[in-house]
Design brief:
The protein is of the alpha/beta class. It has a single domain, classed as Metallo-dependent phosphatases (Purple Acid Phosphatase, chain A, domain 2, 4-Layer Sandwich). It is 23% helix and 18% strand. A 7-stranded mixed sheet has the order 1-5-6-7-10-12-11, with helices on one face. It has a 6-stranded mixed sheet with strand order 4-3-2-13-14-15. Strands 8-9 form a two-stranded antiparallel ribbon. β2, α2 and β3 form a beta-alpha-beta unit. α2 packs parallel to α3 and α5 runs parallel beside α7.
Length: 411
């Protein structure tokens, strides 16, 4: 099958968003409820499937032969996975491009390539952004605005709160059982873990001081989560099940005191591998025992990712309603686990969805992480969700059911 037949690239004209979302909490209501956006709903069988792609790294080598070739291969991989899974929604979970290798005047053309297979199939989608999406050529806010301007018919990406231009992609999207239901069945949250990659095709470059951070903004986002959850509870009288997507994973075992010394943060990383990655956490573990996480500055762990994580723990409230927190960033990690160190909240890694970026021993076959949401599963006293990895070669592996019965020995 030729590439054109696989992708059917859309030529839709740019349409500006009909509604402007304020970035000030003083004006905030329920940000995710927007009457001008088409409601996302479960299908007639009570199912809603999400495919999450991460670490595509489009534009990594535009001036060499292998660069465009690997971008084509990424698009083909996405097309195969989308055609097999037929999702209701797609998440692009960070590092959409290798921004330090592109130019300011052509960076957005790579975003068009990222979205093309999804847009061709008319699948709604959202984006988070990663460290390689913040560069001298382009930043998170510019990417969000481009997506809103050119893909408003399908994109639900917003910029509710957070520091512009490097960390403003924090928002949530509701999904309803049917178009007339007053209360969503599940909420998808998206967060901006910031960071910045220096350089451009001509060579190294500076890092703006305000961009040299590797965690979700601790000043605005925890308050935003708290406020939005309170408004949801007041409006809908219930705590809603939630899927969370953020590119760089939190440093989970350091959730108690802040860890600042080098020896302590190294122990923390070993604990992460020992505590969160035991069997039966099926999937790739190639980046252990030292996977990259939030909260580091100058190779020292600061603990500044904890306000964000603690806000998620408070949002869950011990009810098991945070179904999973899914991250990319570590290409060689594609497992899920839950443990005391994560307050029982399941965490998942996305694996590697692109032909750009580094490749590990087990990530050569590209994948997307799939979440199979079902209304009956969400209506349980403690909700559950099925998740698995879907590969470009048609295989499906590492399927688990996340919930109170998954890895109960670590509750």
């Amino acid at each position: 099958m030729i590439l054109g037949a696989l992708l059917l690239v859309s030529s839709a004209t740019a349409v500006p968003l009909a509604h402007s979302f304020s970035n000030t909490l003083s004006q905030a209501g329920l940000f995710g409820v927007n009457g001008n956006r088409k409601r996302l709903t479960f299908d007639p069988h009570g199912n809603f499937k999400v495919v999450s792609f991460s670490d595509m790294h489009f534009g990594e080598g535009e001036d060499v032969t292998w660069g465009p070739e690997q971008d084509v291969n990424t698009s083909i991989a996405h097309a195969h996975i989308l055609d097999k899974e037929k999702p209701n929604y797609v998440v692009f979970n960070g590092d959409l491009i290798t921004g330090e290798n592109v130019y300011a005047d052509n960076a957005t053309k790579y975003l068009d390539q990222v979205f093309a297979p999804t847009v061709a199939r008319k699948i709604p989608f959202s984006s988070t952004h990663g460290n390689h999406d913040n560069t001298l050529a382009i930043n998170h806010q510019e990417e969000i605005e481009y997506e809103q301007a050119h893909y408003s018919a399908l994109s639900y990406t917003r910029s509710d709160v957070g520091p512009k231009p490097y960390g403003s992609g924090n928002y949530w999207v509701p999904v309803y059982a049917s178009k007339n239901d007053p209360v969503p069945a599940v909420v998808m949250w998206f967060f901006d873990s910031r960071s910045f990659v220096s350089g451009n095709p001509a060579g190294p470059g500076p890092v703006p001081p305000e961009a040299d951070v590797y965690w979700v903004d601790e000043k605005t986002v925890p308050q935003y989560i708290k406020q939005q959850r309170a408004l949801m509870l007041r409006t809908w009288k219930k705590v809603l099940p939630a899927l969370v997507f953020v590119h760089i994973p939190v440093n989970l075992p350091s959730l108690e005191p802040t860890v600042e010394q080098e020896t302590q943060h190294r122990l923390s990383q070993v604990q992460k591998a020992d505590v969160l990655a035991p069997l039966p956490s099926a999937g790739d573990h190639d980046d252990e025992p030292d996977p990259a996480t939030q909260g580091f500055l100058n190779n020292t762990y600061t603990g500044r990712d904890l306000p964000f994580w603690n806000a998620l723990v408070d949002m869950d409230g011990g009810h098991g309603t945070v179904l999973a927190v899914t991250s990319g960033h570590d290409h060689g990690e594609s497992w899920c686990a839950r443990a005391t160190a994560s307050s029982g909240i399941p965490i998942c890694f996305n694996g590697h969805s692109g032909y750009g970026g580094y490749v590990t021993a087990h990530s050569a076959v590209r994948n997307g992480r799939v979440f199979g949401l079902n209304l009956r599963d969400l209506a349980r006293e403690v909700p559950v969700v099925r998740t698995w990895n879907s590969y470009e070669n048609g295989t499906v592996n590492e399927e688990v059911v996340l919930g109170p019965d998954y890895m109960p020995e670590f509750n």
